[in-house]
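Quick one: structure tokens for this chain, please?
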Amino acid sequence: MGATAPPGSGSGLERAKALIRRFVEEGINQGQLAVFDEILDDAFPTPDRVDSGSSAVKEAIAAYRQAVPDARWTIEEQVAEGEMVMSCFVASGTHHGPLWGIPATGQPMAIWGILISRCPGERIVEQRIQLDRLGLLQQLGVMPELGLEEVVIVARLLQASQPWTGRGAGLPQP
């Protein structure tokens, strides 16, 4: 058996980026929820921080895929350094079911997101995500177009109302 490359090495960085691509491609895009058991650390913090492991992530992704059955995340850029991988992506699909308290609208959506993951070994141990929630609300027709001042106020309100946006958060809860 070969030795595992350290996280900061070229092959270790590529391995870490590949873990995130599996998270997105197999877990989110294909809905193969079992992949989360393979790639998330047993101590992976759940969105509510009450539990750890992949079960809450699988529940959140299953609910997301029910709301957006044609969900597709496209990684546009990845940068890795040390144990950290930053992935910029576009999340697209059609809103066919309840999502974050918003009833189905039938509207298409495409929003940007940033996923920051920590991968010190063979598994993802922590993730933070930031989504363009305001853009999502506007695309779904539940938030009017706003001026800059209103956008800042709404963004602050959204940030304060979502416990899963801080450090150690897994994925957004539907």
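Helices lie at 10-29, 35-39, 55-67, 133-139, 148-161.
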